[in-house]
């Protein structure tokens, strides 16, 4: 059995997705012969409550100069980060000439808000192509992995920070102890570490198993984050549920005793107990629900295909790699996947090799059914696709259950 990356106790594996490729490993046709695969398996640590992968892919294989995900592709997320930045500015940057650091700043989607407001900032972003996109907008970006060493480097050059921020990145970092050691160096005595990541409570509630893929080493809850912070003399001082990315949680962490924790912390910790997030049995049940979801999705797609319908994927998300590979959905069922990211277009999807095409192809070739892989962006997408639906096009979703969206039902799980 694997050991917990946080507390070294044995973890209890609860679901095996089988052989998986790199979730963002879109391939040129000539690359299919040497595609990399690993065993995607997820487990629960009964001791510190951290849900995590049991086998890790080397981060250098995931984050590099050809990283496929450009954050600013979504206007909804750009607005979300504008609000996130504003909230941080109001609450945590009252000091004179504040300094804000962002871990995993990608193409600058959050930091541009600080940069535009003239706030001193440093982005730490190891994927060179997205880091370059941020620099081109004048955002101060260090192209490195954030860890204890880079934290020291930043502290030497800029001094201590008022706030270290992150979004959809902390769960990507296997050595979280190094991150906390870095925070200890880098944060002012009253400084805060604020990050938001997909929330385990939403994953369990919605059986949104597609959040499980190579880049997501951890699936956080307040229980596991609190336990991690305590090991480093820090505490959880606030938590704010977020609707983005299928349900996320914003965590605020500070040095023990430096801030008074809000009532939300105790409230949501209690809710987690009620929802079983601290108990192994919950995850055994989740595994059964994941298998049932796969069977229902494959059954529905085969039925639609049997009716002569043409099915296309909507959004070549990293999450879709888990769905297509776990369910065995290949080009025989899904003709193509349309995606607005230029770097993904003209490539094949990881593992099952469905062609990824520009959005114009979706609009022109008029499939009957769109399998909504980017379900977390549904509010933005459904608003844009009224013509597709008016012309008889149907959206299929699989979170929180497998179904065809009809015009009368709303889809409230969108970010
Ligand atoms: N924060 C953005 C990007 C999320 S994608 C958003 O929410 O949209 C995750 C990003 O984290 C990638 O750009 C990846 O290159 C970066 N990353 C991965 N490991 C990292 C590490 N150890 N330190 C800093 N950034 C990292
Ligand atoms: P994400 O779920 O990891 O945020 O990735 C979303 C993917 O979906 C990304 O590759 C861009 C793509 N996408 C579209 O193709 N059309 C859209 O309207 C949106 C919002 C995203
Ligand atoms: Zn543990």
How would you sum up this structure, described in words?
By secondary structure, the chain is an alpha/beta fold. Helices cover 34% and strands 22% of the residues. The protein has a seven-stranded mixed β-sheet with strand order 6-5-4-7-8-11-10. It is globular and about 65 Å long. The mean pLDDT is 96. Bound molecules: S-adenosyl-L-homocysteine (SAH), thymidine-5'-phosphate and zinc ion.
Question: Helix and strand layout, with pairings?
Answer:
Layout: E1 12-21, E2 37-44, E3 51-53, H1 59-62, H2 75-92, E4 99-103, H3 111-116, E5 120-124, H4 128-135, E6 141-142, H5 148-158, E7 161-167, H6 176-186, E8 187-198, H7 200-206, E9 218-219, H8 222-231, E10 234-242, E11 248-255, H9 263-274, H10 280-306, E12 311-314, H11 318-327, E13 337-338, E14 356-357, H12 359-365, E15 369-372, H13 378-384, H14 386-390, E16 394-397, E17 403-405
Parallel strand pairs: 4-5, 4-7, 5-6, 7-8, 12-13, 12-15, 13-14, 15-16
Antiparallel strand pairs: 1-2, 2-3, 3-9, 8-11, 10-11, 16-17
Zinc ion binds near residues 9, 45, 47 and 48.
């Amino acid at each position: 059995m694997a050991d917990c990356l946080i507390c070294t106790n044995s973890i209890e594996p609860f679901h095996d997705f089988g052989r998986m490729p790199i979730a963002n490993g879109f391939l040129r046709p000539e690359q299919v012969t040497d595609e990399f695969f690993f065993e995607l398996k997820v487990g629960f640590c009964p001791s510190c409550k951290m849900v995590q992968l049991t086998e890790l892919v080397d981060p250098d294989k995931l984050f590099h100069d050809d990283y496929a995900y450009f954050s600013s592709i979504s206007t909804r997320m750009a607005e979300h980060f504008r609000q996130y930045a504003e909230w941080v500015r109001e609450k945590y940057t009252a000091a004179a000439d504040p300094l804000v650091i962002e871990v995993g700043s990608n193409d600058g989607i959050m930091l541009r808000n600080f940069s535009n407001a003239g706030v001193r900032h440093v982005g730490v972003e190891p994927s060179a192509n997205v880091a370059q996109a941020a620099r081109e907008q004048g955002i101060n970006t260090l192209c490195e992995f954030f860890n204890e060493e880079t934290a020291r480097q930043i502290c030497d050059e800029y001094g201590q920070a008022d706030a270290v921020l992150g979004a959809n990145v902390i769960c990507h970092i296997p050595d979280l102890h190094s991150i906390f050691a870095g925070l200890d160096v880098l944060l002012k005595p009253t400084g805060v570490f604020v990050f938001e990541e997909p929330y385990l409570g939403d994953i369990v509630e919605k059986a949104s198993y597609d959040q499980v893929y190579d880049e997501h080493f951890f699936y956080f809850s307040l229980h596991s984050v609190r336990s991690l912070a305590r090991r480093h003399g820090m505490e959880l001082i606030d938590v704010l549920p977020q609707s983005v990315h299928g349900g996320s949680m914003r965590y605020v962490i500070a040095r023990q005793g430096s801030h008074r924790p809000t009532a939300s912390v105790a409230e949501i910790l209690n809710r987690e107990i009620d929802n079983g997030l601290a108990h192994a049995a919950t995850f055994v049940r989740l595994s059964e629900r994941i298998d049932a979801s796969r069977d229902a999705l494959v059954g529905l797609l085969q039925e639609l295909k049997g009716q002569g319908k043409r099915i296309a994927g909507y959004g070549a998300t990293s999450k879709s790699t888990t769905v297509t590979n776990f369910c065995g959905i290949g080009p025989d069922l899904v003709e193509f996947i349309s995606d607005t990211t230029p770097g993904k277009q003209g490539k094949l999807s990881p593992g099952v090799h469905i062609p990824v095409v520009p959005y114009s192809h979706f609009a022109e070739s008029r499939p009957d059914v769109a399998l909504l892989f980017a379900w977390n962006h549904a509010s933005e997408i459904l608003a844009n696709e009224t013509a597709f639906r008016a012309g008889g096009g149907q959206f299929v979703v699989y979170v929180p259950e497998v179904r065809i969206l009809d015009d009368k039902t709303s889809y409230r799980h969108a970010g």
